[in-house]
Amino acid sequence: MRRFLVAFNYLGKGEDDDLSFLITLVNATSLELLELNTNNFGGVLPASISNLSTELIELSLSYNQISGEIPRGISNIKKLQAFFVAYNRFHDEIPSEIASLTKLSLRENNLQGRIPSSLGKCHNLELLDLGSNNLSGFIPSEILELSSLSEGVDLSQNQLTGFLPMEIGKLRSLGYLNLSDNKLQGQNPTSIGGIPGFLKDFKFLQILNLSSNTLEGVVPTGGIFSNATVVSIIGNRNLCGGVPELDLPACVVEVLDLSHHAASRSFLAECEVLKNIRHRNLVKVLSACSGIDYEGNEFKAIVYEYMDKGSLQDWLHFTTQEKSESQEEHKKLRFIQRLNIAIDVACALDYLHNDCQPPIIHCDLKPSNILLDENMTAHVGDFGLARFVPPAIPNSSANSKSSTGVGGTIGYAPPELGMGSDASIYGDVYNFGILLLEMFTGRKPTDEMFKDNLNLHNYANVALPDRMMHLTDPILLQERDEHGMKYKVNDNTSSAGDIFLSFLVKVIQIGVSCSVESPKERKRISDVVGELNSLRKLFLEQAYPKEKVISFNLH
């Protein structure tokens, strides 16, 4: 066994689940990858973790509720290269024994103390993410001497103090550097040219964020940032002068058009929403800033994490005339990819509606606001129309709070908005239902065929369950035809007669149920998450019965 992957959400019981089942993997001597992300595991990481396979290369436990200390025995796994335990509840200090990794992510825990200088012994380290903890003290110069650091360094949202070490100038292969929201202070060492003279030799830097410190220095007006995608230096609580000349792609930085009467209100609404929310399926905001550009014009901008694969809109509705044959083939989303994206978006909404206090209504869910990273994981963005719901009435459509007027996008906005009702979480569910139908039919809700009383919801509802061939995106039907034998039901007991179409029916039924006209009759998004996860599990089991699946009963 080389891989052990638990990809489905909520397999753990939370705080009472201590991951003791990992002892059963001690005999898996060929295990190379152990991934248990997003499973609601809690308790502590057992000391037996140090006895796992000596062949283990990657250990990934992010997005759980694991607490306690990070076991020192991790260092006994000699071939371990990647250790990901972000978004958990680990506390105490970072073990100084970790010294042979290429990628380390401990983001969003409650780790304290100093950053161990022994990390400087990780001579092959490419990624270091210790952001959003409670780390203190100076930034160890030993770490910043690692020429191997090419992917990125994120030490943001901690309690780090002191100057920027002059060794920072040696990170010439670095992709991004985020030191924002710390207590870094004072004038930078003159040997690196102040802020940010050391960047002139950085050929690969895409993101630099030093905002929300008390740094001093001059930002040159020359074009030394021509290679940078995002530069955010003049943020709050920095004392810097000058304005950098930047060449910024629009997919990363949202610069608001202040000539629009609602732009400033949209900016404030988005900042208010984004400052306290964090979830793996929400677009990560790196910085927000306002100021005066070199021509004396006011600007406001929100800086988002770059997403390699662009928007879902690009993948669903590309035009063959604009794409080469290879690009057209690349843009074909398979059934399981669409299902994964739908689950990601539903999880983001579930978090906004049920885990945020007060709950948040997105109000503008559509393909162009869903961005895909290099792993095709979906991230919901654009909170310019978002609203808060008072905690006392999270399911009410009344008294929602926003600094913008009633809004949304034609075709996606729920019908009750046009009849004077306020935004509600039911409206988000309607948005999601229309999005789901669009993803699997390939038709936009604004398609010219939808007029009079015909809309995407009615179009899908009428086709259920016997006219799926006419309803489904042709790209999915091509996938079905290419792998037709794999999808046939073996026992011939299914009335659908075809696994692929039977699962399409189930997905479309969820989309239709979410987009019914009456808000109170729409599904709860938490139920949608459970249903889609169950569908994915069943689809993988039935559509790929010959694939080797490793599983066991955890409880």
What does this structure look like?
- It is found in: Membrane.
- InterPro entries: Kinase-like_dom_sf (IPR011009), Leu-rich_rpt (IPR001611), LRR_dom_sf (IPR032675), Plant_receptor-like_S/T_kinase (IPR051809), Prot_kinase_dom (IPR000719), Ser-Thr/Tyr_kinase_cat_dom (IPR001245), Ser/Thr_kinase_AS (IPR008271).
- This is Protein kinase domain-containing protein.
- By secondary structure, the chain is of the alpha/beta class.
- The chain has a domain at 312-543: Orthogonal Bundle (Transferase(Phosphotransferase), domain 1).
- The protein contains twelve helices and 25 strands.
- α5 packs antiparallel against α12 (525-543), α6 runs antiparallel to α11 and α11 packs antiparallel against α12 (525-543).
List the helices and strands and how they pair.
Layout: E1 3-5, E2 33-35, E3 58-60, E4 67-68, E5 82-84, E6 89-92, E7 103-105, E8 110-114, E9 127-129, E10 134-137, E11 152-154, E12 159-162, E13 176-178, E14 183-187, H1 194-197, E15 207-209, E16 214-218, E17 230-232, E18 239-241, E19 253-255, H2 263-274, E20 285-292, E21 298-304, H3 312-316, H4 325-330, H5 335-354, E22 360-361, E23 370-372, E24 378-380, E25 387-388, H6 425-441, H7 456-463, H8 468-471, H9 474-482, H10 484-487, H11 499-514, H12 525-543
Parallel strand pairs: 1-2, 2-3, 3-5, 4-6, 5-7, 6-8, 7-9, 8-10, 9-11, 10-12, 11-13, 12-14, 13-15, 14-16, 15-17, 16-18
Antiparallel strand pairs: 19-21, 20-21, 22-25, 23-24
Helix pairs in contact: 5-6, 5-12, 6-11, 7-11, 11-12
